[in-house]
Amino acid sequence: MASPGFAAGGHRPGGSADRSRPNAFDAAVRGAHDRAEARAADEARVAAERFVASAFLLPLMAEARGGALKSDLFGGGFGQDAMAQQLETHLADAVVRGARFPVVDRIVADAAKRGPQP
C-alpha cells in the first residue's frame, strides 16, 4: 500500500528520483566546479610562465645588460640601474606569455597530472 503523497515506487512525483531533467542546483554546481577548474588552470599557467621567465630569460637579459652590449652613451643613470631588474622581469613575463613556449605547456600538463599540492 502506497503512502499518501508518494507515487508508485516510493518516490514523490517530480522529486529527486526524476534524473532525466537537469535542475538549477545541478547546473549551478557544475558551473562553479568548471569555473574553479578553469581558475586553477589559469593559476598554474601563470606560475609556469613566471618560472620559465625567471629560469631562462632573466639570466639572459641580465647578462646582456651587464655584458658587451652595455654602453655609457645610452645609460639611464641611477634610475635605470635601480629599475632594470623590475623592467627585465616585466619584459621576460611578457615574452613568455606572448611566445607560448612549449615548456610552459609541458609544466602545466605535468602539474595537472599531479593534481593540487598542499
From TrEMBL:
- Segments for region (Disordered): 1-23
Q: What is this protein called?
A: Flagellar protein FlgJ N-terminal domain-containing protein
Q: Which organism is it from?
A: Phycisphaera mikurensis (strain NBRC 102666 / KCTC 22515 / FYK2301M01)
- Lineage per the UniProt record: Bacteria, Pseudomonadati, Planctomycetota, Phycisphaerae, Phycisphaerales
